[in-house]
Write a structure and sequence with these properties.
This protein has helices spanning about 15-30, 60-65, 80-90, 90-100, 160-165, 185-195, 210-215, 230-240, 250-255, 270-280, 285-295, 300-315; strands at about 1-5, 35-40, 50, 75, 100-105, 120-125, 145-150, 175-180, 200-205, 220-225, 245, 265. With about 325 residues, the chain is an alpha/beta fold.
């Protein structure tokens, strides 16, 4: 089967959308399908389309639906689709959902955020990640917290830096931020913070192996987003055994569970500073976070993701 896999992220991008597209293409090729990844495609010669992002891929979704109305069309709902564009760009986003044969969500709470009429189309596929090649060796000099996410509004990217400023002078905390600035304004903000905040290091966009190297030396990973569709970096941290500190939003709770002990209220640097200090000074609490993440590992295996795709394709009448 010829599958058109459309993603808004270009070939050289290290954004989560591109990572997801590349991983799904490998899975589908392992099933014997021919997969073409592109940023825009009407899918005219494809037997099936998988579109990552309802709003950003709307043009391709509409074209395929019009040209090949009886062929399977699968749409991944990104975080901005679910929590932003279905409200701000309602007509286009809901049209993409309407045209989809199946919708994919990446965390367990997606259903309560989309219109009820689309619940029957929704399938949850948990993103997987390989483990670290060797045991973690957290820094002994610093208490390192890694933030792995691009600098843009949805990520609330500077919250960790602001919280770090509130910790006592005795703290060895260091925030290591990996991610590209979305625009010159965010770059200016990050550079200014580096110059004024000795606890904040911004390394910009790095290769995945560098992210994993930083995982190995970090004591915990922080995801501070105000909206997420189910971040791959969370599943990666889980599989790598890195304790997670997370903003309490549906996209994180839907992956980590309601009872996960490492949440703080989104956009609240005082509360974040408190949990960062607790993580640094209370080894039992940090162990509790690690143990909680380790219990989730079986949910984010490559075998589990592959099985979810097999089930989805079976529902569509496609052999895998």
């Amino acid at each position: 089967m010829k599958i058109s896999l459309v993603t808004p992220a270009g070939k050289q991008s290290r954004a989560g959308n591109r990572t997801t597209a590349a991983r799904w293409a490998r899975i589908l090729r392992d099933f014997g399908h021919q997969v073409n990844i592109s940023m825009n495609d009407d899918g005219d010669d494809a037997d099936m389309m998988i579109a990552i992002h309802a709003w950003r891929s709307a043009k391709s979704i509409r074209a395929f639906s019009q040209h090949r109305p009886h062929r399977p069309l699968v749409v991944l709902l990104a975080g901005t689709d679910i929590y932003k564009f279905q409200h701000s760009h309602t007509k286009v986003t809901l049209d993409a959902m309407e045209r989809a044969t199946k919708l994919i969500g990446l965390h367990d709470l997606v259903e309560r955020a989309i219109p009820e009429k689309y619940h029957r189309k929704l399938t949850i596929i948990r993103q997987s990640s390989p483990p670290l090649p060797s045991p973690r060796r957290p820094s002994k000099r610093w208490f390192e917290i890694v933030v792995a996410g691009h600098l843009r509004e949805e990520k609330d990217p500077m919250r960790a830096a602001y919280a770090a400023r509130l910790l006592p002078s005795t703290s060895r905390l260091r925030i290591v931020h990996l991610g590209r600035a979305h625009d010159p304004g965010w770059e200016k903000t990050a550079v200014a913070e580096v110059q004024s905040n000795t606890r904040y290091i911004w390394r910009g966009e790095v290769a995945n192996w560098e992210v994993r190297k930083q995982f190995s030396r970090s004591h915990a990973m922080l995801i501070s987003s105000i909206m997420e569709g189910g971040a791959n970096i969370v599943s990666e941290a889980i599989v790598c055994g890195v304790p997670i500190i997370a903003s309490r939003i549906d996209g994180n709770v839907g992956m980590l569970g309601e009872d996960y002990p490492g949440y703080y209220p989104a956009e609240d640097e005082a509360a974040l500073a408190e949990i960062l200090q607790r993580s640094e000074t209370n080894s039992a609490f940090l162990k509790r976070l690690e143990h909680s993440c380790n219990k989730l590992k079986p949910l984010y295996t490559p075998a589990g993701e592959k099985e979810a795709w097999q089930s989805l394709l079976k529902d569509l009448g496609v052999q895998s």
